[in-house]
């Protein structure tokens, strides 16, 4: 692994990347991607000035090919323009992967980037907790009467969405935390992917202050996750944490207090949801999802090769006409990919998974124990994401796409550090040579 670097040449670029990682998720869905788009312009100019080219890597090549396919799917889609725009949005969010994979080129930068993700998750988790607590105190007590807006940007979103030529779902979820996201499941997806970053920082960061920040952010992340009242998210975070528990004894000892807290909090939160929900609501929700899954599979069998085209609108209209329920997607990422992209789309998804597994194997084979710790962190995040994906279309919004692609970027950056194939700035090269000599 590379040792600590001063990285003065890349300081401005990396500072802007840290701001993007820590701040962009706090903004609404239609603003967050702008951080990535604008930063990419500076990133590509800076890299060319310093004699470097942004490398895609095998993972990036496969994913970029998939985004191109999504853009092309607008040709046979019933919503030509919207499908092409969705594909272009994926391409735009893909730039986040490209920047993380290339700009995070030392271990110091990698740990700072982890801290940025932790801060972002901690802030959004804290807002979600405030929404949940103020709602329940206002509803169940006489001495408290103040509710944090849920979602936080609901009224602002309402005005913005009115400007669009197509309908955008903008619901209120007063009893379930959504924070700066549009619904509880989207927030839960983000926090499930982010939680392993907090666990890594709490255990493996050397600086006491950084471990403290990670611990506080992890508590807020898990608290916000609990307040989404998402049963799928609870299963996802349990499996995610389980992956880290088996990594080594040190992790097990550190996580025991958090496991005890979760074991106490989970039944309490589920009881509160049951109490706040109409009679039979949870059963209706489960049955509705089963019916939507059946409809999603039928859509795939009717359009098996190319699918309906990128985006949820085609599927949305079919679900409305067949089931008479206003659900925008199949509530399952894999069914969604199959329905949108057909067998070709599924083939791309499988190729991405294969390359990802190949990259993670490289980290496990390395003798450096910290690299194995990174590998377990990424596996934990992906296990949580995949579990959530069974119950939800987890890549339906820009911020979900951004977090997923940042995660892929972290994986690629760490593999390059392990393989010693990173592109260093001149001052970083000189410092490395001094250490080697």
Query: In total, how many beta strands?
Result: 0
What profile does the largest beta sheet have?
A: none
- Specify the number of helices: 16
How much helicity do the residues have?
Answer: over 70%
The stretches of 5 or more residues where confidence is low (pLDDT under 50) are: none
Order of helices and strands: HHHHHHHHHHHHHHHH
Strand portion: under 5%
> What is the 3D form?
globular
Q: Supply Rg.
A: 22 Å
What separation lies between the terminal Cα atoms? 16 Å
Mean pLDDT: 86
Structural class: mainly alpha
Summarize the structure.
This protein has helices at residues 11-23, 32-49, 57-72, 80-103, 107-140, 154-161, 184-204, 208-226, 231-245, 249-276, 281-302, 313-323, 333-365, 369-391, 398-419, 426-436.
